[in-house]
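In this section we walk through a basic example: taking a raw amino acid sequence and producing a predicted 3D structure, encoded as discrete structure tokens. The instruction is simple. Fold the sequence below.
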Amino acid sequence: MSYTSKYSSNFYNFHGNYVEVDIRKKDYSGAVTPLRNTEVFIEVNFQDNNTPIIGTGASIVILNQGGFADLDDLLSSTEKQFMCVIKYGGATVFQGFSICDLNEQQFMPFARVKLQFTDYLKRLEGHFADNFFIGSNTDLLTLVQELIVTVGFGAAYELWVNSTLFETHQTKTNGNTFLKQTYVENNMFFSEPNTYDDVYEMVNKVLKPFGCFLYSFGDKWVIERQEDIVRGGGAMDPWVRYTLYQVGNSEVGLKQEYNKQAGDFKYVDGSQILEYASGLRTLIINFKDKQYDTFVFNDYTTTMSVTNETFPTAGTLALKTWYRHTNVMLLQSGFDYKDMSSFIKWMYAQTISNHDREFAGLYYAFQIQFPPAPEKPIILNINYKQSVEIPLAPTMLVRMRFCLRIDQPGETFDGFYIVSNGTDYRLFSPIMGDLAFKTDFIINKPESVFSNSQSINLTDIVSRIYITPDIWIKDVSYWDLLGNPETLKFIIMFFPIQVFIPDYDGSYEHIWTIPSPQRLGDVEVTLTGQKVINKLTYYINEDFVNTEEVDIDFFDLPNVNFANGLMYGLGGIGNDAIGKTKLWTSEKSPVADELMDIYAANKFRNYARTIHKLKGRIMYDGYIKPLAVITDDNRSATEFILQGYTWDLNNGVYDIVAEEYTSEEIIIDTEGDSSGGGDGDPGVTPSVPTNLTAVQLVAGSSVDISWDVSTGASGYILQRQPYYNGITWISSWKTVWEGYNAFTADPIQYEAIPPNSMHFSYRVLAKTTLLYSAYSATEVLIWTA
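The resulting token sequence is shown next.
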């Protein structure tokens, strides 16, 4: 596909500069028709500071000097049928495609015809990335390229990036930027297992936390952080340039700065107006991070990883990755088979042993995080569907099977299976087929789709050491032995369906595991909901009134139960070099800080005093970049950042909107949301509380508890064991207090009156809005009745 010139409208403007308007038609061959224009405008459509994508359009008014239908192909053009290239003094200042939404023509001789073109950034709502998988991760550069490559200007278009963010981790000589070093989990974009955001929405989401803008500038694409617009821009402050959508070299910056007194521009028509608005006092950030719909993603492919172990060795399977046994032959993956929304179809070779048919299957490793002080059972829910493509008689029985194993090298129960004896769940270490969860179905129709569901109370598992099938020792709570674990990795193993043929006495004793096509699909592994701090309030101690609430879709929550973004490391999620944004720096934040704090500081740096917005009409002979810097000595050293504008190329004037930007240092504070927390820095893990003491001053009354204040803490969680459940005393930990002071009282007697000399243990942890310390050393109190 190529575009060839069909119409042209060239002229000298007010400043005597040559302007070329070249309108090219797709797959056209023929002569070029000259047109006479009366107006040529380029408009930069800046929406607001929270919308990163800035679209640019061109409006051209020409006179139709022929018949009414002469320009009908332009006026009624289909999407991208025409491309418009505008040059000013030989340099490209606009490229865009035709749209007919706003085209118009007067119904009279020498009709006035208005044509509209756009750089197409905002027209890509509804464009979806191909082969976008829910369980994968994507670097920001790939997402941005998915948008700008789709626009269709060709590989010659360059991407320039201006950002000091994370600069200490960049290697500018080979083009590293935060775009290459930042990854987001694709799950963040999914509303359903197979439904995800269009690319326009994706790019807006990922650039917003960085305070970035993406826009076209002549023959370039530009990504620029607002905080870095006013930086030097010379050889010592190079921008990173990507050429042909590959990592390029660093370049001298594109910064533009104009001063009225230096004669760079002048106001016309007495139009300059300065608007005032109250400064920002409070900024509320809502972190929109998404809790996993399932820890096992249905993104199986026919090229999934392979293992030759029937029961894979602990620690050998990568997280969030499907594996198949080497004897499993994958046929296809697909959607909408009967009541399966997604599935993988697979079978075995005819020659493998019956044992491999029974236990070689599909495997997946996932990780979950436990709340630091669970007060209610933590339930792991597992649901999935299977089918087998053989004729099934009504007298047959079908058995679905899966295994769940802890896969955490170094942990006490690494390699142990979670099993059920019908009344409770236990841990079991030997590898045996009988460890599988089984669900049986009596057939009622051939080729049925069967569902298996289990709900496992992870905080109530009994750990026993196996001696013989009838002898166990160490009947101990798994949760207590693990010491309230933070995270655990599991492997779930899905085995083929077994078919049982009835025996002569009516029992089902003959197992039939056949090499017939089977389907596995709609896997859901979920955890009971948790309370997670997802709102942070920043405020400044100034007498302003404005409050702004911003939704941020990506932030690196420490909770692995949530899909995350803003993870860096050239290898993505599987790389050992992954870090969190608390290690990031920028030009104005040279000390490592979390991205949310850098974002908030930049917001207040711009809006922490009376806000000035400049509107005016200026005369300038040249092409002004969006986000250029405009200064006027009448406003002292004030710098204004040019946002949106309309450029009248015929008359050489710009109608501009610019907002004041200040580089002053400010001090902000934070507070947590209403679910808990207080003042403090959520980016620093508080120290472990020390000197925990528990004293009962009066027999039969409350226990007084205190500890030393923890550095960086905004609150504390106190736990005690045992506790009374209304029937008996339970030997497990329970949170008995949560607050901000380093002391409290525990009125045990109101639960139930303990017997004399009963032992109670206490422990306490410190917390901020997002982070928790480890628990303190345990303090034991002997109750006096």
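Looking at the output, two observations stand out. Confidence is low (pLDDT under 50) at residues 465-474, 570-577, 672-682. The helical segments are 72-75, 140-151, 178-181, 199-207, 354-359, 478-482, 595-607. In the next section we compare this with other chains.
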